[in-house]
Amino acid sequence: MENRRKEPFRYSLTPPTGCMIQITTINQSAVASKLAEAVLIDISKAGCRIQTSLNLHVTHNMIGASVHLHLGEHSQVYAGFVRWQRQVADGLFHYGMKLELDAAQKEQLNIDLRTLAAERKIIVI
What InterPro entries is this protein classified in (predicted)? Predict the structure, then answer.
């Protein structure tokens, strides 16, 4: 059987872990925003899903953002773009982000994910 999966595997955090999000651009214009609280729900080498109370109006704006998180021994900052938004409850939104990781960040993420898998803190979805 041939595997035709074109996307990296996603890893769901059990339980989801706290992180911070910082908006870096809106419609390709740089902005200086403060860090906002969020929850990391799942992650892969290509992207992640977070939950926050921020309403970014992604359908009308191109949003660049950085996710600040602590998966392994060190804190990491991953830059990317918000691809989609979904309201999941009154005042809570899920966002899908496409991450732009360099080779070193991808390797560190792999190390962190292997550590979390060994600790049974993530599952493949």
Answer: PilZ_domain
